[in-house]
Amino acid sequence: MAKVEAVIVCILIILMDVVAGILGLQAEKAQNHGRHLKVLFIECKEPVHQAYRLGIAAAVLLALSHVIANLLGGCTCICSRDVLSGSSANRRVAAITLVISWLILGVGFALLIIGALSNKSKSRATCGFPHHNFLSVGGILCFIHGIFCLAYFVSANAANREDKPQRSIISHGVHP
């Protein structure tokens, strides 16, 4: 991938994750503006449709940024200790950040969806144990996800550039 294209993809990944994080935090803010009644450890609240829409939008952007980083970052496969010990530092960083970004995606996406779905119903109030901060924690994880996806994309591209000279030597019949 050319340097200009890589910079554009990096900006796109960060921009999508930052917007997703802001939407998650705004969804939490909208949810907190809804009507709540708390008695001891039971809380009744009316759903806020705006929080639902913002939470779903944040989850979609988080997933899209992850897909873009993974598709355009290339394949970073380290399947055994032998491959790990023989791989470059860039390939190791790419593998580690890939795993971490998937974990953050799973938790952040789940929190955003749970927080959004708790605000889906337009008419009836629900009572139960408080479910606070799902949307805001999901929004914060979007920012962290952006950092790890950016690190993955950059290190995977660097590792792929390191491998290109070896691939061209092998394809021409010369073995290092």
User: Care to count the β-strands?
Assistant: 3
- Provide the succession of SSEs: HEEHHHEH
Strand content: 5-15%
What global shape is seen?
A: elongated
> How large is the count of helical segments?
5
Rounded to an integer in angstroms, the radius of gyration calculated over CA atoms is 21 Å
Provide a short characterization of the protein structure:
By secondary structure, this protein is mainly alpha-helical. The protein is 73% helix and 6% strand.
Which descriptors apply to this entry?
single chain, about 180 residues, mainly alpha, 3-stranded antiparallel sheet, 5 helices
Can you offer a commentary on this structure?
The protein is mainly alpha-helical and 176 residues long. Helix content is 73%, strand content 6%. Strands 1-2-3 form a 3-stranded antiparallel sheet, with no helix packed on it. A hairpin with a 2-residue loop joins β1 and β2 (42-45).
Write the layout of secondary structure elements.
Layout: H1 3-32, E1 36-39, E2 42-45, H2 49-73, H3 81-86, H4 89-117, E3 126-128, H5 134-171
Antiparallel strand pairs: 1-2, 2-3
